[in-house]
Amino acid sequence: PKGTMAFTGKYEFEGDDNYDAFVQKIGLPSDKVEMGRNCKIVTEVVQNGNDFTWTQHFPGGRTTTNTFSVGKEADLETMGGKKFKATVKLEDGKLVADFPNYHHTTEISGGKLVEISTCAGVVYKRTSKKIA
């Protein structure tokens, strides 16, 4: 149903589209590009009302955690490790945020976590399946 969010869970990377074109557009350093390609990232989401803790576990033990509340400015970190401020909004059941050089939406669709990032006309889509 619209208006309800059920993001809480653990999701494992399943596949993506346009990775190379996207990371080139956002200027990700080549070592990070290789690291992120077909990377079995596990995304762990804990949602408590409008408050979220969003952790990405990378192979090799590195993690990135972003904590935010819908509608309030928060300190976030990009996949390249850059820190920035953004306000995450909720639009039609999707979480929407503007990163420094791309627009990002996340939704649960068909039980999967679907993340779409857009930069200068390049659309990068990452799908993760629920594992817990």
Automatic annotation (TrEMBL):
Cytosolic fatty-acid binding proteins domain boundaries: 9-26
**PANTHER family attached here?**
FATTY ACID BINDING PROTEIN
UniProt-annotated location(s) = Cytoplasm
Family annotation (SUPFAM superfamilies): Lipocalins
Pfam families to which the protein is assigned, alphabetical: Lipocalin_7
Q: Which UniProt keywords apply?
A: Cytoplasm, Lipid-binding, Transport
Q: Which Gene3D superfamilies match?
A: 2.40.128.20
Its domain of life?
Eukaryota
Molecular-function GO terms, alphabetical: lipid binding
Spell out the family assignment given in the record's similarity comment. Belongs to the calycin superfamily. Fatty-acid binding protein (FABP) family.
Q: Does the keyword Transport apply?
A: yes
Q: Which GO terms describe its cellular component?
A: cytoplasm
Its name, as the record gives it, is: FABP6 protein
Question: What is the predominant subcellular site recorded for this chain?
Answer: cytoplasm
